[in-house]
Write a structure and sequence with these properties.
Largest sheet: 6 strands, antiparallel
Structural class: alpha+beta
Order of helices and strands: EEHHEEHEEEE
CATH architecture: Roll
CATH superfamily: Hotdog Thioesterase
Length: 162
């Protein structure tokens, strides 16, 4: 679905507790889809992931590293940064309105994270076609130091989000 101009008006409830009257432009559609996905995403909620910003083909998420997220070295388990990046991939790749699922992902950890660190994942679309899209996700800490680099490839199904 492509919205070249405002066609519909609807109220969107944001996670910050207020309502906005928005048209269904592409960026609004992206936010609607991500909010719908997030509402059903028990794992992202359990991790404490917060949505910072969403637009077509991109997404920014953050979380605070908690004690129960650390491993035996007292640093964040690699699965924490991976999960944050994977959620950013899911939200960014579905933001166009077509249901998309990952087919390949990889991550390189460059710096450790400790309890109290705020880590931010920024997903950016690098390539998109009818069936395949590729995203790069940079994960940084509150000091803007890169802690991990993630790449994800998704398969774009023929099903649209409603």
């Amino acid at each position: 679905m492509f919205f070249s101009r405002i066609k519909y008006k609807e109220l969107i409830f944001t996670k910050f507790g207020y309502l906005k009257c928005l048209g269904m432009e592409p960026s609004i559609l992206a936010n609607k889809i991500v909010n719908q996905m997030y509402e059903g995403d028990a794992f992202s909620k359990w991790l404490g992931i917060e949505i910072v910003e969403v637009s077509e083909g991109s997404c920014e998420l953050k979380l605070i590293v908690r004690e129960e997220m650390t491993n035996g070295f007292k640093i964040a388990h690699g699965g924490i940064t991976y999960s944050l990046a994977d959620s950013a991939l899911a939200f960014a790749s579905n933001s166009h309105g077509r249901k998309s699922v990952s087919v390949e992902t990889s991550i390189s950890h460059t710096k450790s994270c400790v309890v109290g660190d705020e880590i931010i994942a920024k997903a950016v679309e690098k390539s998109i076609s009818n069936k395949i899209a590729i995203y790069e996700i940079t994960i940084a800490n509150q000091k803007e130091e890169i802690v991990a680099l993630f790449k994800g490839t998704v398969y774009r199904t023929s099903k649209d989000w409603e």
